[in-house]
């Protein structure tokens, strides 16, 4: 048993500690207990700015090829992750045989993954393949990447039939220690929604194989209320900017999207910057990845 003198000394020490804590703004014991340290495997909310942009093979509304103009537009977005559609790589004279996604990534100081939809034999033996597809640019290191097949109706075949084809790009980026799955897509443009119905089913099947935060970026070639897109909104939240995206000059419909898996992130703000550097406008979203 403690002596009376020791108990008095201990009481004085506790009183001194309490007074110092009050002066320094330290929380009382009850408040500290109510705010425990994060347990292993949890993360604080992390801000992430993402964008999607159909770059129209480098051409603007004036149909003039101008990659400098598009690079300036993308730089101004200050996005951490960007999904690109209609990106040429050594495709042909319309884009000066250049690697558009690679050049844009280099100018912006970002990592890149290109997922071709079409990859054709080179025009000259030994030359690079002529490719057209989608891409992801990321300020964060890409730790893995894949080019998935979904149903497509080829524009290169004179008598196409719906069949699996590549061009649904996926990367995993590590954002402040947390893996995030980012997908970029470009759905069929034809008025008949049958191919888009199959593509949405393929998209959901592929994304269901992954866990953790998921972000879908793309030109879906359908407006938000389109029946063929409805299944997507069962697992994803549409980061609605409240503005149309196409055509870039005087746009009348929204066919470009940022969507996040439900519960994975808070959508703080989404907007559509004015631009005619492509025939589409970009969609930009400020997200906060939720801690888990």
From TrEMBL:
Signal peptide interval: 1-31
Ranges for domain Endonuclease/exonuclease/phosphatase: 51-280
Keywords: Endonuclease, Hydrolase, Nuclease, Signal
InterPro entries in UniProt: Endo/exonu/phosph_ase_sf, Endo/exonuclease/phosphatase, GPI-anchor_lipid_remodeler
GO terms of molecular function: endonuclease activity
Gene3D superfamilies in UniProt: Endonuclease/exonuclease/phosphatase (3.60.10.10)
Pfam families, alphabetized: Exo_endo_phos
Stated name of the protein: Endonuclease/exonuclease/phosphatase family protein
Species, as recorded: Streptomyces cyaneofuscatus
């Amino acid at each position: 048993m403690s002596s009376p003198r020791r108990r008095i000394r201990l009481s004085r020490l506790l009183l001194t500690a309490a007074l110092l804590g009050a002066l320094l703004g330290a929380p009382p014991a009850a408040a500290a207990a109510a705010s425990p340290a994060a347990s292993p495997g949890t993360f604080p909310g992390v801000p992430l700015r993402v964008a999607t942009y159909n770059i129209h093979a480098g051409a603007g509304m004036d149909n003039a090829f101008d990659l400098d103009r598009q690079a300036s537009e993308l730089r101004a977005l200050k996005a951490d992750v960007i999904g690109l559609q209609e990106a040429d790589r050594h495709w042909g004279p319309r884009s000066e045989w250049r690697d558009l996604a690679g050049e844009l990534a280099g100018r912006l100081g970002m990592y890149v993954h290109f997922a071709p939809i079409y990859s054709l034999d080179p025009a000259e033996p030994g030359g690079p393949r002529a490719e057209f597809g989608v891409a992801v640019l990321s300020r964060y290191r890409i730790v893995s990447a894949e080019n998935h097949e979904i149903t497509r109706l080829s524009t290169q075949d004179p008598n196409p039939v719906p069949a699996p084809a590549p061009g649904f790009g996926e990367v995993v980026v590590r954002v402040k220690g947390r893996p995030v799955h980012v997908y970029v897509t470009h759905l069929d443009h034809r008025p008949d929604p049958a191919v888009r119905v199959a593509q949405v089913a393929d998209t959901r099947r592929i994304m269901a194989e992954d866990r953790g935060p998921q972000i879908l970026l793309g030109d879906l070639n359908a407006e938000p209320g389109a029946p063929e897109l409805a299944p997507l909104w069962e697992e994803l939240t549409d980061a609605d900017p409240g503005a149309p995206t196409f055509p870039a000059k005087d746009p009348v419909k929204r066919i470009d999207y940022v969507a996040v898996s439900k519960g994975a992130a808070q959508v703080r703000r989404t907007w559509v910057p004015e631009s005619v550097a492509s025939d589409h406008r970009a969609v930009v979203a400020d997200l906060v990845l939720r801690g888990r």
